[in-house]
Task: inverse folding
């Protein structure tokens, strides 16, 4: 049947929403049958510390299990805690939050409450945050925060779920606790199992906890924007075991610096859809459906920004270090060295410039390298001359000792010969 007058071709079906397309693409990257690996605050803080690494941004955004991927590539990372450490940490956290958070509220009042007494257990709201799926839990957390703020009451949110957009993809974060005060201030609580000895803890561990807490504060700020009267505190409460006991002790950590750095670094991250668009068709990081060569090719198709600091923060660090060393990349020497070398990106190019085989003689980096090479050669020549002089002195001393020994043996020579002759006759 011919088309009726004025009718045109059938309209094309509407294109799927961009977010649906992105989720489908990310599912293809990690494997359709693979559940997404959650992005926690520790991983997000490490990602913010290295915003130029597109490889980590894509793998984290797609929910790829980097530990399994590193094992499949032959470069497993020795990450993780022992079962005993998990059990000890969980037991300590349960002790801190027992009885409706009575001990936690006491510590909070001591450190951040001024002269106000801690609230009674029946004055603290502990809302139920259970819901279906991460989106449901996030919405339930936001509702509980708004209700507690509007009620002007104390509230303890145990393991709330927060959402933060990272490189165009949502990341779900779960702090240990968030306390809502009657004045509308929200305070993040970090509970750690490392000890606080004589009122102070390991600086490196406290710094890592501060970076994680800064991520939680950023996520809370997104909720506070839509909550009247809410304010997110830029000081968090760190709770640790006191000395070598299981008794809790608390310290206030100012995270304003970490907040500023994390906010700036996250803004520099390239959007995940832009990174995924540049990958070859059919690229996947599923270890169960790819050979080692295919996985290596897939991983190498995404640019990385390796630095020695990655060894303590990323499961793929050993693989990236091996590739950087094989390619002679100066990144393997550290970010500081890489920044000083300017346009010289390989160790071979650096050595050639230092020895006069390449490089612009007017380049300050090349001038500094050649000066350093000349100083090194001069030091090696001086060391060689000193070693030669010591060797000559040792030989002269040894010769004099032998000459003295030979001169002392001349008088004993006839007697020794006569004794030998007598022994032969007998």
Result:
């Amino acid at each position: 049947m011919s088309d009726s007058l004025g009718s045109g071709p059938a309209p094309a079906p509407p294109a799927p929403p961009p977010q649906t397309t992105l989720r489908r693409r990310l599912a293809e990257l990690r494997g359709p049958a693979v559940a997404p690996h959650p992005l926690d605050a520790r991983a997000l803080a490490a990602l913010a510390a290295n915003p130029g690494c597109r490889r980590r941004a894509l793998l984290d955004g797609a929910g790829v299990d980097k530990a399994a991927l590193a094992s499949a590539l032959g470069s497993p990372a020795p990450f993780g805690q022992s079962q005993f450490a998990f059990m000890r940490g969980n037991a300590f956290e349960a002790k801190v939050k027992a009885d409706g958070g009575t001990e936690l509220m006491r510590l909070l009042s001591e450190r951040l409450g001024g002269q106000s007494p801690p609230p009674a257990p029946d004055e603290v709201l502990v809302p139920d945050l259970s819901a279906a799926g991460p989106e449901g839990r996030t919405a339930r957390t936001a509702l509980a925060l708004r209700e507690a703020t509007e009620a002007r009451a104390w509230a303890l949110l145990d393991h709330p779920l927060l959402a933060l957009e990272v490189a165009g993809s949502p990341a779900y974060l779960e702090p240990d606790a968030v306390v809502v005060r009657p004045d509308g201030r929200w305070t993040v609580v970090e509970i750690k199992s490392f000890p606080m000895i004589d009122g102070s803890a390991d600086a490196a561990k406290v710094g890592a906890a501060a970076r994680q807490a800064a991520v939680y504060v950023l996520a809370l700020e997104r909720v506070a924007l839509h909550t009247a009267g809410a304010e997110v505190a830029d000081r968090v409460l760190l709770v640790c075991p006191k000395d070598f006991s299981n008794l809790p002790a608390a310290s206030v950590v100012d995270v304003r610096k970490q907040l500023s750095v994390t906010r700036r670094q996250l803004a520099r991250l390239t959007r995940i859809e832009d990174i995924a668009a540049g990958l070859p068709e059919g690229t996947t990081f599923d270890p169960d459906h790819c050979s080692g060569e295919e996985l290596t090719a897939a991983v190498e198709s995404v640019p990385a920004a390796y630095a020695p600091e990655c060894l303590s923060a990323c499961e793929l660090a050993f693989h990236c270090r091996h590739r950087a060393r094989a390619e002679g990349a100066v990144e393997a020497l550290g970010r500081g060295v890489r920044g000083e070398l300017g346009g010289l990106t390989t160790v071979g190019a650096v050595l050639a410039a230092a020895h006069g085989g390449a490089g612009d003689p007017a380049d300050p980096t090349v001038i500094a390298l050649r000066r350093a090479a000349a100083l090194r050669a001069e030091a090696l020549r001086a060391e060689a001359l000193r070693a030669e002089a010591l060797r000559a002195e040792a030989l002269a001393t040894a010769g004099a000792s032998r000459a003295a020994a030979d001169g002392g043996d001349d008088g004993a020579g006839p007697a020794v010969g006569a004794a030998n002759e007598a022994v032969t006759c007998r």
User: Anything to note?
Assistant: The CA atoms of residues 4 and 10 lie 12 Å apart. The longest helix spans residues 364-409. DSSP finds 15 helices and nine strands in the chain. The radius of gyration is 34 Å.
